[in-house]
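Lab notes, practical 5.
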Amino acid sequence: MDYVDLFAGCGGWEVAATQLGLQGVGVEFDKSACLTRRAAGFATVEADVRTLDPLAPEFASEGLIASPPCQTFSLAGNGSGRRALDTVIEAMDEMLSGREHAEFEDDRTALVLEPLRWIIARVRAGNPYKWVALEQVPTVLPVWEEYAEVLRQMGYNVEVGKLSAEEFGVPQTRKRAILVARLGTEVSLPAATHMRYKKGTPQDFVTEGLKPWVSMADALGATEALRSNYGTGGDPKNRGVRQAEEPAPTVTSKVDRNKWIPNTAVEGDTSWTSVRPSPTIVGSFAPDVVAAPGWRKAGDGPRQSQPGSVRVTVVEAGVLQTFPADFPWQGAKGKRYQQCGNAVPPLLAKAILKEVTG
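Output from the prediction step:
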């Protein structure tokens, strides 16, 4: 196989890999995510990564992909992972010396070490991965930097940094800490193809050689599969989504794109609107990304649609993540939003994979 994908989720990496002609298998524990993966045709092992043998024949591959759970590291979480960063780094040294590492306040924090366990096992078996791609929330960057030092000692060329999704055509301002490594040859993070979004900067103000960033209106208004499904839950095949569950649009027009363009403009408004990229789609997601006129700001209280707003559906959230509009989301509605929010945007994953695989 070309790769094994740990903590594979619903298949953001797989969408990208398939487009590049790569074949692999994903390991995922969540049942709903596994249902989605299988419906999409992705090879899947439903298991806890910690229970598996990296040297088992079914996991033989040239590359390793991993997006460990980020809840304890995320700024939206309880922060136990951020408090444990030093302990995580100490645990890496213990793993290299063959000792058991200490327990963590939240056992999900230790999952960030699993990719290293798989890498070490392959190196010690004399059959190291040819390439590695890791993705996490920005607060995990110090862990990836420590990973980089360990991998360089093993003979890998490594680059670590933060990437912003809208710089790769994703209609969303999602920042992620990325590590790419390749054995024996140079490697680098992918170069931006689109402008970074900056508040107050018009979409057509671009640097030579870069494309404009993509807005919510661009992504949602131009999608034929979504156009015909407004007001029906946004699911092209209506897989168990209740009819007419979405609020009526506040902007009416024969042109669907206008649904996503605010009909009012408030001077000094700092909220997100549909003429900008979406804010980060997160795993704790309820249907609360509002398309018009704004986005819930910090301190605005409970997650809810602002007056006069339109909330995106699961499918529309997927499109903002650059999943195909007909991607076969499975499971309960809340689980679908969770899968979507936890995924790496396929368009960003594609740029990373093109670079790291050469």
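Observations recorded by the TA: Residues 3-197+343-357 form a domain with the Rossmann fold fold (CATH 3.40.50.150). Residues 222-272, 285-310 have pLDDT under 50 and may be disordered.
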